[in-house]
Specification:
The protein is built from 13 helices and ten strands. The chain has about 300 residues and is of the alpha/beta class. The protein has two domains: about 10-230, TIM Barrel (Alpha-Beta Barrel), CATH 3.20.20.150; about 235-305, no CATH class. Strands 1-2-3-4-5-6-7-10 form an eight-stranded parallel β-barrel, surrounded by four helices. A two-stranded antiparallel ribbon has the order 8-9. α5 (about 130-135) links the parallel β5 (about 115) and β6 (about 140-145). The longest helix is centred in the last third of the chain and has 34 residues, at about 235-265. The two termini are about 30 Å apart.
Length: about 300
């Protein structure tokens, strides 16, 4: 694969909101291998449903469909009926749990039904415990793990880790992006990338990652490559290496420097030495030098952040 061993793709809504055909053409030009057909706004679903049997999806290794996030003109049953064509093609159907008015009508979708964990605006589906309650009602459903939503709920990523461990056998796809304070999607930031890397080892390499970062067509490949770095196990290993440098090696070096300084002050030949000479022997350590030595191992945006 051109980007990494993982299958990484985009939501059509992130590339061309409301125009899945234009988004598919752009993703095909970028040799993207996974796509989520977005009908996040309910007025997009009827056209997508009508077009799906004739839609050219050649070249995509993974295809899913995102159901509307809110029903106002359509009823729950209308949405379920329109999504039937996606189920007929065996495409996973991503659903926000707060749109499930009653679980029973959704059960025929079985393992194709994919419940997404929610952000802070929603009253359910945000934590492992809340997701467990949903899966008890829909036992065959799978999980769409939105890492940006989970990070917003708990920036320490402890809840994210819990979700991934509790539902590792249910994970169908991962959503990734940046997320603003208003819960709107953006490109993946350096800070988000570093947080996501801590979870990479918990996400099987066979699970597709769908990016919801709204980017121009020219930046599709760049965003995918950045995501590939974020979800690669080597970055987590680099994190451990950095912590080792600053937590262990630096501490050991400082201890050696202080011991040397104390020996210098106490030595007989130093009894007549000026206070300025003693001051010149105070231990110093340039963390900047250590950082720069490590910069070559960082992804481009991460290197910029510590210069």
């Amino acid at each position: 694969m051109p980007y990494s061993d993982r299958i990484i793709g985009f939501s059509t809504g992130a590339i061309a909101k409301g125009d899945f055909r234009r988004a598919l053409a752009a993703l095909r030009r970028a040799s993207v291998k996974a796509v989520e057909l977005s009908a996040l706004r309910e007025d997009e679903l009827p056209e997508l449903s009508r077009s799906l049997p004739r839609l050219d999806l050649e070249g995509f290794e993974y295809v899913s469909v995102h159901a509307p996030s809110k029903f106002s003109r359509l009823t729950q049953q209308d949405v379920i009926d329109l999504l039937g064509i996606a189920a007929a093609h065996a495409f996973p159907i991503v659903v926000h749990p707060d749109t499930i008015e009653s679980p029973q009508p959704w059960k025929p979708f079985a393992h194709l039904l994919t419940i997404e964990n929610m952000d802070k605006r929603k009253p359910i589906g945000r934590t492992s415990a809340e997701l467990q309650a949903l899966f008890e009602q829909l036992p065959e459903a799978r999980l769409c793990f939105d890492v940006a939503h989970a990070r917003q709920i708990d920036p320490t990523m402890v809840e994210s880790t819990q979700i991934l461990r509790d539902f590792k056998d249910r994970i169908c796809e991962v959503h990734a992006s940046g997320l603003t304070a208003r819960s709107t999607h953006g490109p993946i930031s350096t800070a988000a990338s570093f947080a996501y890397s801590s979870l990479a080892h918990l996400i099987p390499s066979t699970i597709p990652i769908i990016l919801e970062s709204p980017v121009d067509e020219r930046l599709i490949s760049r965003e995918i490559n950045f995501a590939a770095d974020a979800f690669s196990p080597w970055l987590e290993q680099l994190r451990s290496d950095i912590e080792d440098v600053f937590d262990l090696r630096v501490a050991t070096l400082r201890k050696t420097q202080i011991e040397h300084f104390l020996w210098y002050v106490a030595s007989p030949q130093n009894s007549q030495t000026s206070s300025q000479d003693s001051a010149n022997n105070l231990p110093t350590l340039s963390n900047k030098r250590t950082q720069l030595a490590l910069c070559g191992k960082f992804p481009h945006r991460l290197a910029e952040s510590i210069r």
